[in-house]
Amino acid sequence: MLPVPGLKVVMPPGVVDNYNTGELVIEGKTKKVWHLKDNPGFVIVVSKDRITAGDGEKAHDLEGKAAISNQTNKKVFEFLNSLGLKTAYVKHTGEKSFIAKKCEMVPIEWVTRRLATGSFLKRHPGVPEGFRFSPPLQETFYKDDANHDPQWSDEQIVSAQFKLNGLTIRQDEVEIMRRTALVIFEVLEKAWAARDCALIDMKIEFGISSLGDILVADVIDSDSWRLWPSGDKRLMKDKQVYRNLSTVTEEDLDTVKRNFKWVADQLDHLIPPPSSRVIMITVYTIHI
């Protein structure tokens, strides 16, 4: 994965989990992404023991979070790969790291919602919390922390003419990402339902590979979704618990970490064994 074109962070090479790294591609709030010196088509993504909210305005160190997030990400992406979805994820490499195909990232977050909650309620006064969207509602947000990730329309995305690894993002590409995001949500929603847990909403990101393929990229962990066991908001196991805290104690952080560990453990039951029949989903890029 690569940052948005024009944004580049250069740091000296080194070694991460026995892989020789080149330049640091980018350092975000909760991860670092390094070029792989001996494998130029790939990067290594390293999670941090850090939790943030509110575009980074709220942040705390949280020992053990990186390993839990990396396990969660591993299990989700292995599940998606087993279904035949195109992702950037390649393999788990260490307690806090994984290898991914090198991509240029589409600077858009794709949010899929089954129930109205969170920021949706603030933007749509009068809609009751828990309002059910059928089919799921999809929204897109431009990644811009300084402006709090404003919501964008299809027209804005297409008009931006993002050109990534030679592919210009037009309406066809927007539709591919929209349909892929919906498939991912519905597959994971059914998988979580089998564990008596409701997937309320989730966000994903896409990258464009050197071959011009649209891939599900970045990470998917407990920062990426809302999960309510038995459909009960009071039992939430996601990062919203941290967002809701007006003050944060060590005991609070321990609760957040236990919730994240619960999610990672539950994912063991979502992964189909190798003998299971898998669903092959192929998404074709249309060039006009």
TrEMBL record:
One of its GO terms (molecular function) is carboxy-lyase activity. Residues 25-254 form the SAICAR synthetase/ADE2 N-terminal domain. Pathway: Purine metabolism; IMP biosynthesis via de novo pathway; 5-amino-1-(5-phospho-D-ribosyl)imidazole-4-carboxylate from 5-amino-1-(5-phospho-D-ribosyl)imidazole (carboxylase route): step 1/1; Purine metabolism; IMP biosynthesis via de novo pathway; 5-amino-1-(5-phospho-D-ribosyl)imidazole-4-carboxamide from 5-amino-1-(5-phospho-D-ribosyl)imidazole-4-carboxylate: step 1/2. Keywords: ATP-binding, Decarboxylase, Ligase, Lyase, Multifunctional enzyme, Nucleotide-binding, Purine biosynthesis. Gene3D superfamilies: ATP-grasp fold, B domain, Phosphorylase Kinase, domain 1. InterPro entries: SAICAR_synt/ADE2_N, SAICAR_synthetase, SAICAR_synthetase_CS. Pfam families: SAICAR_synt (PF01259). One of its GO terms (cellular component) is cytosol. One of its GO terms (biological process) is 'de novo' IMP biosynthetic process. In the N-terminal section; belongs to the SAICAR synthetase family. In the C-terminal section; belongs to the AIR carboxylase family. Class II subfamily. HAMAP family: SAICAR_synth (MF_00137). This is Multifunctional protein ADE2. It comes from Cryptotermes secundus. The gene is ade5_3.
